[in-house]
Amino acid sequence: MPTDLSCQVLTAGFSFHRKPYSMVQLDGVKNYLMRLQTDGRCRARIDGSMSMVDAGDLLLFDPDEPYELRIDNEYNPMGERLVESGDYHIFFNGSWVDEWWKRHKRPTRIKVELSESLLTLFRQLILEQRRLSNPYPEISSYYMRILCLEVDRLLSEHPTNTKTNHVAYEIKNYIEENASSLFKLNDVATHLGISVSRGVHIFKETFGKSIMQYTLDVRLNMARERIIFSPMTLEQVAESSGFNNYTYFHRVFRSRFGMAPKEFRLIHREQM
């Protein structure tokens, strides 16, 4: 694990282009660059050739890697010519980053879900960089390290870059982000633009359990933590963890942990 905590964010921003744009630095950008395509399309130099970059493509460049970006006219389904490209971009460096980069073989492009948790990290870094007076510059460093480690997690969770694999992890991310609210299989499918049957099949094939089984696992884990560490009543724990029926929650909790929620709270708080 890296021992040097040096990690500096040089600049962080969001760009949205409606006119053609290009940037060419074939001798590299001199610092590390992380770029997340959020809207529209563009073209970038990836592995030596210009490739189409779509929303959800996360690009990683080391300081010496050739960088070329082109935003040109594209055509929508109606045949209309337009230019539209939005992205978050961060230039950063530091000895911590050097060690982090060397830990894994890093592809230039990673396909990710534009989840609220990932987007929030980019937004927070931008806000920190905009502060005119900031007595705590290390906050940016911590956020950047969290973002880098999140990239590591994305790499570990996407061992193969197939479309099917990507959809399965998009479903998984949706569950983890929405487990505290009530949702149906149709909500997951609609969010991803797929059929319910395809989503159910892909998820079960990838993870060996159903979407609702995994949802139950996440909700029970949330409830377990809140029972131990929060001051909420057991009924509030159940509701805030995605259970709208306390009787059902009591039954599945006892089945999973071998004791009722009240007994579980008493035992674990005595151990604290």
From TrEMBL:
<dbReference type="Pfam" id="PF02311">
    <property type="entry name" value="AraC_binding"/>
</dbReference>
<dbReference type="Pfam" id="PF12833">
    <property type="entry name" value="HTH_18"/>
</dbReference>
<dbReference type="InterPro" id="IPR018062">
    <property type="entry name" value="HTH_AraC-typ_CS"/>
</dbReference>
<dbReference type="InterPro" id="IPR018060">
    <property type="entry name" value="HTH_AraC"/>
</dbReference>
<dbReference type="InterPro" id="IPR009057">
    <property type="entry name" value="Homeodomain-like_sf"/>
</dbReference>
<keyword id="KW-0805">Transcription regulation</keyword>
<dbReference type="GO" id="GO:0043565">
    <property type="term" value="F:sequence-specific DNA binding"/>
</dbReference>
<dbReference type="InterPro" id="IPR003313">
    <property type="entry name" value="AraC-bd"/>
</dbReference>
<feature type="domain" description="HTH araC/xylS-type">
    <location>
        <begin position="169"/>
        <end position="267"/>
    </location>
</feature>
<keyword id="KW-0238">DNA-binding</keyword>
<protein>
    <submittedName>
        <fullName>AraC family transcriptional regulator of arabinose operon</fullName>
    </submittedName>
</protein>
<dbReference type="InterPro" id="IPR020449">
    <property type="entry name" value="Tscrpt_reg_AraC-type_HTH"/>
</dbReference>
<dbReference type="InterPro" id="IPR037923">
    <property type="entry name" value="HTH-like"/>
</dbReference>
<keyword id="KW-0804">Transcription</keyword>
<dbReference type="GO" id="GO:0003700">
    <property type="term" value="F:DNA-binding transcription factor activity"/>
</dbReference>
